[in-house]
């Protein structure tokens, strides 16, 4: 692979490798590509199979990268009209000796990893040998072929639970270059393992259920970039230092482009035939909305492009990385990307590189990416600058001379107020995840395009199960697009239909145990009849019939009024007894309940007058009278 092809090669591998990995492979005995969420496992030899949906669940956390840029949203559309989000919203280059978090998620109802719940898995990382092309992995060759082109290490062992890694899994690359991460099942027979020499060693049946690629650099490059440039002028990047350990020539490439176009033009990879043993790369058609690049490509002193500086997008890619695509495999759209690039070869550590802009470029923020590469090393960095006209002020000094009076011009026709003729389309609505656990959140993105003649404000509505749950206003210029993002939390399990205005984002499956739920039973009274001034005990049984630990506040209710409360924490499937003691001062009948469950009727009688020959005396007076009588008898006997 050439030095200038490294970055684009990585992108192609990330998007297509796991698809072409099953080309020509045979389904396992159990494999039936029925379109279910379980997919098909294809045998590639040595008792090793590949799940045809392994491209979806495994991702490296791009926030751990040294160089991170936004990417076009990538989707796969199957011949059965199913669409999968590849979750490639960002691209990252990671740093050697820096920890990278690996995430494994059930991202779609049709790529459901919960089928592997309870399976033990190994996370294995292959580091490609120097000079080995990334395409080595494209066809998932034999284990011996892989061992000849890469060295492997075991990064972790864990278990799949709820479709995810049961433990936190990280990988710290110890060297720059291309790395391929595999998640493979294993059992007591061994499965796919790594021997002491860094080779893959099949020790029993295993299935690769996750595939991810990382590109690693020793350290980021260093560039002094301008903060702004006027349209039509060159953006001058100074003190370009590759930071690579080499005394030879280094290829430098700086790309300056409108990142907002990248963020709002999703790419769809169409599979025109079923993904089975007869599938070939001729069955892949890529829909690329960007049809042309408006800018200047400079290779050394050579500038490409016609007089209008508009170059077909595929020709620009071919210039950088060679002929990557058959003419009938890429369907280009009408969108225009404002971008320029300069490629030079140098061996100085303080190189100055100019990148052209065009006067026609709109004034806004643009992103630049620097890639320095040799045959076996890469260093990258990125940043932004503004393309804008410089504000000028009149020169000072001298005697001011009044300018001639301007000739009145006819009043222009009043322009329409913003929003009068604005027309909007909501395009490509997506979910960050299509399966989450109760209590988690999901991001819902939509691209809002103003197809009218003037700027305007559009109210984007997040709709869940037919009800509007959130709104956002977004300002969009005529002919432009903006991305709106909602974040919504779902607390209860279930399947929800998600949309932004009239554009469906699909279904969201919320899994996990149901929340705590309580039943109150067996409410009883210690006595059904007492006298005024006495107390009665009220007890009840509280059972947690939900799926999670929870706290319940039991209420003692007398004649419909809450008179006391007690809180108890109860585990799922267990019960506790709650008790109240209540004194009743007045006679009457009282209806007693505990949190809506009846304990019965309590009758409180009038307090008795004393009885048994001591009428009219209360208990204290009766005791005093008896004591006085005893004292009188004793006095007489004396």
TrEMBL record:
It comes from the Archaea. Residues 428-501, 523-595 form the CARDB domain. Residues 377-426 are annotated as: Disordered. Pfam families: CARDB (PF07705). This is CARDB domain-containing protein. The lineage of its organism: Archaea, Methanobacteriati, Methanobacteriota, Stenosarchaea group, Halobacteria.
């Amino acid at each position: 692979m050439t030095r200038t092809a490294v970055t684009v090669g990585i992108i192609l591998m990330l998007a297509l490798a796991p698809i072409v990995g099953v080309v020509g492979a045979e389904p396992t005995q159990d494999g039936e590509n029925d379109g279910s969420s379980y997919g098909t496992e294809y045998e590639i030899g040595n008792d090793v199979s590949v799940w045809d949906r392994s491209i979806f669940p495994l991702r490296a956390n791009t926030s751990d990268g040294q160089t991170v840029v936004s990417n076009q949203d990538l989707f796969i559309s199957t011949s059965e009209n199913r669409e999968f989000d590849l979750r490639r919203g960002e691209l990252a280059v990671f740093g050697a000796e820096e920890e990278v978090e690996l995430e494994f998620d059930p991202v779609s109802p049709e790529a459901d990893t919960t089928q592997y719940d309870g399976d033990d898995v190994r996370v294995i990382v292959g580091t490609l040998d120097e000079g080995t092309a990334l395409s080595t992995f494209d066809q998932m060759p034999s284990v011996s072929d892989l061992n000849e082109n890469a060295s492997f290490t075991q990064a972790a062992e864990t278990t799949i639970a709820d479709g995810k890694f049961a433990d936190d899994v990280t990988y710290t690359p110890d060297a720059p270059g291309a790395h391929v991460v595999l998640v493979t099942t294993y059992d007591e027979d061994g499965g796919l393992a790594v021997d002491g020499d860094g080779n893959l060693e099949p020790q029993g049946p295993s299935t690769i259920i996750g595939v991810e690629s990382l590109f690693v650099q020793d350290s980021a490059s260093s560039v002094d970039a301008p903060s702004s440039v006027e349209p039509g002028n060159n953006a001058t990047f100074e003190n370009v230092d590759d930071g690579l350990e080499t005394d030879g020539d280094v290829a430098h490439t700086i790309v300056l482009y409108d990142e907002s176009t990248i963020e709002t033009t999703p790419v769809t990879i169409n599979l025109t035939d079923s993904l089975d043993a007869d599938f070939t790369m001729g069955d892949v058609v890529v829909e690329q909305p960007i049809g042309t690049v408006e800018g200047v490509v400079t290779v050394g002193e050579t500038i490409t492009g016609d007089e209008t500086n508009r170059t077909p997008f595929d020709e620009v890619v071919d210039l950088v990385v060679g002929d990557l695509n058959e003419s009938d495999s890429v369907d280009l759209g009408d969108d225009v990307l404002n971008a320029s690039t300069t490629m030079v070869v140098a061996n100085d550590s303080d190189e100055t590189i100019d990148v052209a802009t065009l006067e026609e470029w709109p004034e806004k923020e643009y992103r630049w990416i620097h890639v320095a590469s040799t045959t076996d090393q890469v260093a990258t960095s990125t940043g932004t600058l503004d393309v804008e006209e410089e504000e000028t002020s009149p020169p000072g000094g001298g005697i001011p001379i009044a300018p001639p009076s301007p000739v009145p011009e006819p009043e222009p026709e009043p322009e329409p107020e913003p929003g009068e003729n604005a027309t909007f389309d909501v395009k490509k609505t997506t979910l960050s995840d299509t399966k989450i656990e109760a209590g988690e959140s999901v991001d819902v993105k939509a691209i809002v395009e103003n197809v009218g003649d003037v700027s305007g404000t559009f109210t984007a509505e997040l709709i869940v199960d037919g009800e509007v749950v959130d709104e956002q206003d977004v300002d969009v210029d005529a002919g432009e697009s903006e991305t709106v993002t909602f974040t919504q939390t779902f607390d209860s399990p279930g399947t929800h239909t998600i949309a932004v205005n009239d554009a469906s984002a699909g279904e969201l499956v919320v899994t996990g145990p149901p929340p705590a739920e309580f039943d109150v039973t067996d409410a009883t009274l210690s006595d059904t009849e007492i006298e005024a001034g006495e107390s009665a005990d009220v007890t009840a049984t509280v059972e947690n019939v939900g799926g999670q630990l929870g706290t319940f506040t039991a209420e003692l209710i007398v004649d419909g009024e809450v008179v006391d409360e007690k809180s108890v924490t109860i585990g799922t499937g267990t019960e506790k007894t709650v008790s109240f003691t209540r004194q009743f001062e007045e006679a009457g009948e009282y209806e007693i309940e505990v949190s809506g469950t009846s304990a019965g009727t309590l009758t409180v009688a009038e307090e008795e007058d004393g009885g048994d020959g001591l009428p009219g005396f209360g208990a204290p007076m009766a005791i005093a009278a008896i004591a006085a009588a005893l004292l009188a008898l004793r006095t007489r006997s004396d």
